[in-house]
Amino acid sequence: MKKVLLIDDDESIIEVLKLYFEKEGYSVSSCMQGDKAIATFNVAKPDIIILDLMLPGMDGNDICREIRKTSDVPIIMLTARTDTLDKIVGLELGADDFVAKPFEPKELLARVKAVLRRFDRKDDTESADDSADQASGSEVISYPGFSVDKVKYVVTVDGNEIYMPPKELELLFFLASNPNRVFTREQLLENVWGYDFYGESRTVDVHVKRIREKIENPDREQNWCIKTVWSKGYKFETK
User: Fold this and answer.
1) Could you report the per-residue pLDDT of 7-66, keeping only the tens digit for each?
2) Are 174 and 148 in contact (CB under 8 A)?
3) Integer CA distances (angstroms), 76 to 66, 92, 98, 148, 204, in order
4) Domain 139-238 annotated CATH 2.60.410.10
5) Cα distance from N-terminal residue to C-terminal residue, the chain
6) Could you tell me the CA-to-CA distances from 11 to 17, 42, 55, 102 in Å, in that order?
């Protein structure tokens, strides 16, 4: 049975969503205060989190940031705002999807199922291939002064380990695994986020920007970089 953690300060939303999710066979935990969310998360150990952006005590972005320090559990954020910046910030912090309030519970349920399918496919693939990948090194991509290890989820630049949320690392790994090949934003969404990702192509731009800030140094010559191909998309260029 999949476990859902609902974090929202609106009791009516909690009650309605609990009914919908339990009817679909999910186990549901809830929390209505931001400053208690992390403790609730640690106890509940959910398979997915529905996280409101505006909460008393600690907002959704801060909660997402704290959870991402230790876990890649899927997070769907809820927001009553229409500001695109909120969505961009949430995606940068590691949110997997966004749903705007007001919303239909059936739509949220569909998104939860879609995110869990993607997450389960990734886990199944990694479990099946883990031993072979570690032996063959196919999950470790290396270039001079740079490597990305998808088994250990570690990026190294000039000997220094660089922290990246899971989706940033997976995007970087995918691009670096296909050097000098151009991918459209839609192709990157399809290959990294999954066929049924509900986000927009802007998501790719946000993640690429964050990756560049972490691995590229304009003051030092590097034989690799993520290059924007005008009107097309991106490629991992090697010299």
Assistant:
1) 999 999 999 999 999 999 999 999 999 999 999 999 999 999 999 999 999 999 999 989
2) no
3) 15, 13, 6, 26, 17
4) no
5) 49
6) 10, 21, 12, 14
pLDDT in tens, 73-91: 999 999 876 666 667 777 7
Class of domain 3-119: alpha beta
Q: Where in the chain is the domain with CATH 1.10.10.10?
A: 139-238
- Contact at 8 Å (CB) between 201 and 189? yes
- Which amino acid is located at 22 in the chain? E
Give the span between the Cα atoms of 199 and 118, in whole angstroms: 13
Query: CATH 3.40.50.2300 residue ranges in the chain?
Result: 3-119
**How does 195-234 read in b/e, with b if 16+ C-beta sit within 10 Å?**
eebbbeeebbebbbebbeeebeeeeeebebbbeeeeeebb
